[in-house]
Amino acid sequence: MVELTKMNGTTFLINSDLIETIEENPDTVITLVNGKKFIVKERRQEVKNLVISYKRDIYVN
Question: Tens digit of pLDDT for each residue in 1-27?
Fold first, then answer.
């Protein structure tokens, strides 16, 4: 799970395995495989780095 920040400042966890797309135009919009969308404060590259870091943590340890 990756912790992200909604536009209103609240944080939430998202299952990175369910992310289908991450778009930045100019807000970052994450679309899940079920079609649900989240707008977050983090930039696209930051979300990508968080997912990579999470995957490394679970597969290496």
Answer: 999 999 999 999 999 999 999 999 999
